[in-house]
Amino acid sequence: MSTNRTLDQRLQELEDREAIRQAICGYGYAVDGCNAEAVGSFYTEDGIYAVSDAGTWEGSEAVAAITASDTHLSLVTTGCAHVSTPPYIVIEGDEAVATCHTMVPLRRDGEYFIARLSASRIELARQDDGGWKIVHRQNNVQDGSSDGPALLARLNEAP
Q1: How far is CA 145 from CA 78, 105, 121, in A?
Q2: Strand, helix or coil at 81?
Q3: From first to last of its 159 residues, what are the pLDDT tens digits of the chain?
Q4: Can you tell me the distance from the alpha carbon of 64 to that of 20, in angstroms, rounded to the nearest whole number?
Q5: By C-alpha distance, which of 22, 34, 29, 14 is closest to 124?
């Protein structure tokens, strides 16, 4: 971090990082609350959500529609949570990348277990209003293959 940056520049970076964290974490709360409008609002209109073993949703409306899918509703009625770890964020101008783990604890037989663990790389863009939205989110399931670790290894790679 350069010491030659102004206080305003440093404050802007902190605000950007917080807005990015809000978009990443807010998705989990919104999807578990079946709040399609909020889920879609975290993505650009042509944003992509790609899950290595489950498919790809293209466009904010398609991502929002996840909340009404039978698969998702069965998870919610069983008892689940979409949880993100604190993201590692790289910002370059009006683009950013956040790297984190995401997991889905699920309830079965009165107990919770981690049903899914993924490596996530989330590309975001600053919007005209100064906020941040997800352009592309790639989740690679942590299943012992090299896909998840390879995605996490890109942690310092700029957008």
Answers
A1: 28, 21, 16
A2: coil
A3: 556 899 999 999 999 999 999 999 999 999 999 999 999 999 999 999 999 999 999 999 999 999 999 999 999 999 999 999 999 999 999 999 999 999 999 999 999 999 999 999 999 999 999 999 999 999 999 999 999 999 999 999 999
A4: 19
A5: 22
Both tokens of 68, joined, read: 């009404």
Q: How far lies 39's CA from each of 21, 101, 151, in Å?
A: 14, 19, 23
Read off the tokens for 134: 């997800």
| Entry pTM | 0.93
Q: Set out the domains of the chain in order of their start, with CATH numbers.
A: 7-153 (3.10.450.50)
As a whole number of angstroms, the distance between CA 158 and CA 92 comes to 7
DSSP 87: P
Distance, in Å, from the CA atom of 65 to the CA atom of 39, rounded to the nearest integer, reads: 9
Task: Write phi, then psi, for 152 (nearest 5 degrees).
Answer: -65, -35
CA pair distance 149, 50, nearest whole angstrom: 16
